[in-house]
Each structure stands twice: as C-alpha cells, then as structure tokens.
Amino acid sequence: MGYLQEHRTLRRTLRSPVISAVLVIVLVSITNSTWEVYKKDKVARINKEEVEKQLADLSTKRDYLIGQLNNLSTERGIENELRSKYQVTKEGERELVVVDMATTSQDNLPVKREDNSVLENIFGLFSF
Hints:
The chain is mainly alpha-helical. It contains 4 helices and no strands.
C-alpha cells in the first residue's frame, strides 16, 4: 500500500499548478532560445551566400587581372595597350587615325582638297 500512496502523492505533485507553471515557463524559454538561434542561422546563411558571391566575383576579377598582367609582360601587349589608350604611332608611321564608322556621318569625314594655287583659291572665293 505504501507504493500506491507514494505514487498518488507524486501524481498530485506533478499535476499541481505550480509545477505546471514552471514547466510552461521552461517550455517558453526553450522555444524562445530556439527561435533566436533559428534567426541567427538564417542571417548567417544569407551572409554566407553573399560572401561566396563576392568570392566568385573577386576570383573572376583576379583571373582577368592576371591575364592583363601576362599580356603586359610581352612587348606586343605593351604596344597594344599604348595604342589603345594613348593613340601612339609606330616608328615610320606618320599618323594614326581611328574612325568609328557606326557613329560618324559622311558629313564629318575629312574632305580631300585638291591642290590649287593661291590665285585659284582667291578667285574661288569671289566666284559666283
């Protein structure tokens, strides 16, 4: 009979409002902590994706820059870069003219003049 009496006392104690309130508080605390960890995990995953994207972009940029450095380490690469940036001519070349035909109209192209004498030019000004 002592066992049954002890079992009933334990059952009454566990069903008491104080124990129930303590269990609810513990459950709410655990739930709140779990929710905070979930939010931090979500932020960490987003940050990880952004960092991986930045790493991929930087790797692409590094590969491009290494290619440019390799190109500039040759004589031909230096010449091409100088010609593209500063419109430099080679020895023996008199003039380097780069004309983009897509954006240039026929009116803006230089007109080749005929070699006229000074007198012909003066008479050309006064002719009607």
